[in-house]
Amino acid sequence: MGKAGVGLIKGIDVEEIVDTLDSYYCYNLVVMHFSHALHNRLEGQAAFLLGDELEENAEQGLKAAKKLADRIGDLGGVVSADPTQFVERSPLGEFSLPDSNSEVGVILGFVVERIRMIIGEYGAFLERVRGRDEISHLLVLDLLKEQVARESEIEAALMT
């Protein structure tokens, strides 16, 4: 990272930022894999109703991971390269699939729990970097907005 870029970060360790952003990078790659794996397993009405949504979710996960990787590189860090570490490095801690491949409510409930978890993670990160690393703050704020919108969409679908 350039000297001017380093000078913008105040009162927080760059390595801490890189480590946290890498955990979000890993999370988003897990989301991408989860979306493809679940899409492959969908049955019945869930296959009809959720197929396109899961494809979009996978694409958004990959886009978010790319943005995070770019920022990590800007900070002089590197992303996790070993795919076997993605789940462990992510805030999820473990990989799982919903108990049903056909019940839309069960699947959406499972997904919204994970979205709420990452919303909390992003929110805590924003508090830590606010006023200290505005570039990372803006990046994660944009990612947070996407997750809040997704949570709202799923909640609306669950109420139907």
Can you give a write-up of this model?
This protein has 160 residues and is mainly α. Helices cover 76% and strands 0% of the residues. The chain has 6 helices and no strands. It is elongated.
Rough shape? elongated
Mean pLDDT: 95
Low-confidence stretches: none
How many helical stretches? 6
What would you call the structural class? mainly alpha
Alpha-carbon Rg, integer: 17 Å
Question: Roughly what fraction of the amino acids lie in strands?
Answer: under 5%
Order of helices and strands: HHHHHH
Number of strands: 0
Q: How many strands, which pairing sense, and closed or not: the largest β-sheet?
A: none
N-to-C terminal Cα separation, in Å? 49 Å
Helix content: over 70%
List keywords for this structure.
single chain; 160 residues; mainly alpha; 6 helices; 76% helix
What would you say about this model in short?
By secondary structure, the protein is mainly α.
List the helices and strands and how they pair.
Elements lengths: L2 H6 L5 H28 L2 H31 L11 H4 L14 H26 L4 H26 L1
Helix pairs in contact: 2-3, 3-6, 5-6
